[in-house]
Amino acid sequence: MSTVAQDSAPIVALTDAAKSFGAVRALDGVSLSIRPGECLGLVGHNGAGKSTLVNVVNGGLAPTSGRVDFPASGADTALVAGVRSVFQELSLCPNLTVAENLRISHSGLCGPGWRRAARAEIARTLDTVFPGHGIDTETTVEELGIAERQMVEIAIGFAPRGQDVRLVILDEPTSSLDAAIADQLVVYVRQFCAQGGAVIFISHMLGEVFAVASRILVMRDGKVVADRPVAAFTRQGLVDAMGHVADDDTVAAVTRDLGPEVVRTDDGLAARKGEVVGLSGLAGHGQARALAHLYLGTTSAWRGRRDPKMVFVAGDRTRDGILPLWPILRNISIGVLQQFSRRGLVDRSAETALAGDWKHRIGIRTGDLANNILSLSGGNQQKVLFARALASTAPVVVMDDPMRGVDVGTKQGVYAMIRAEAAKGRTFLWYSTETDEVCQCDRVFVFRNGRISAELTGDAITEEGILRASFEMQDD
């Protein structure tokens, strides 16, 4: 812990804080303090209570019992105490410009000339956190890619906004960023904390947690099960503290024989039956667009099929994935209802059995599949989208950065399921911003400036090879 952290009053202090939602105790007597200069890495599997904890800290939820105090400022609320949150589920208004989105949380921007001031402030912050970002502050958010939107959300969190920023909560801040941009954020977080700020850094990417945190807090079932300086953890020790959620029988290696080519696009993207094909490169260089064109060019825009040729797993679940007014069960079964339908009638018992099976197989943390999909954490919502896709009979699965916000235990289970499905002849096209995920693939297409810059196979699929191809086009 830094000298600043040791000698200063806590920015926020929780004392036996608990939060219940009916019979569900999401936060169970947590005591915690965060001081200036600290970067607290907050880890735990999906549904462990992380989101509830940070919403109690930032004032989004009032604790059912216990206390939340702000000793350093003596403030009554998190907002006045200088606590900011950058959410995993992006909260920007898509029809407003980047600068106008800053204005929503900055009441001091008013009167003649406020737009100019807003553009200058958000541009300054973007330049500081993400040098060379290339984002036009007069662009509407809906025109930005998901990585750019995440960068804007982070910049708004760190922007001055007329008061001192004391504590910034970053919830899965790099889930849509490529490695180079994520490194920029890590560098800035270190700088911010060195200057006396504090950060709560929530991530399922354990390498990032070790790189940026001064202290790690592990949660399980609403409780803090470990709270130690980062040097006191090993990677395996941290995974063990979190607890394992994947079934042991899901991780066995599977030998596969690849079949004939089943996908071939004009831009050179190809895949064989039973192959797991990765799309990589710097974020925003055409990978998501290539997958969207492939999927939309293969499937009907208005009519479902009993035997679909292709199925899609969205990374931007809020925009492209979940049905927010529907229960968990319907969100899982919507892609396969025709399999259970005869003469327009759905076999509800078969539907419920399928959803229950996938709830168990992929570890969706809910007591009742009839609950609304929004009752789940972001990572568990993503599990629902996986269940929807893998429950279908589609021979080709298109995945657009699908592991955003999914915990490490579930990731391992999903990797194993992907390999098992591929062994049965199913083909996967998988765009990911995480190099570790891309290295799970049989073949990788690296994109740069909207084009394929390299095709890697076998031992050539390495982080070094991917980075080299991301920055230098191969000779034609």
UniProtKB/TrEMBL annotation:
CDD domains (alphabetical): ABC_Carb_Monos_I
InterPro entries assigned: AAA+_ATPase, ABC_carbohydrate_import_ATPase, ABC_transporter-like_ATP-bd, ABC_transporter-like_CS, P-loop_NTPase
Annotated transmembrane regions: none
The ABC transporter domain, residue ranges: 12-246, 245-474
Keyword line: ATP-binding, Nucleotide-binding, Repeat, Sugar transport, Transport
Domain of life, per lineage: Bacteria
Gene Ontology molecular function terms on file: ATP binding
Key word Transport present: yes
UniProt name for this protein: Sugar ABC transporter ATP-binding protein
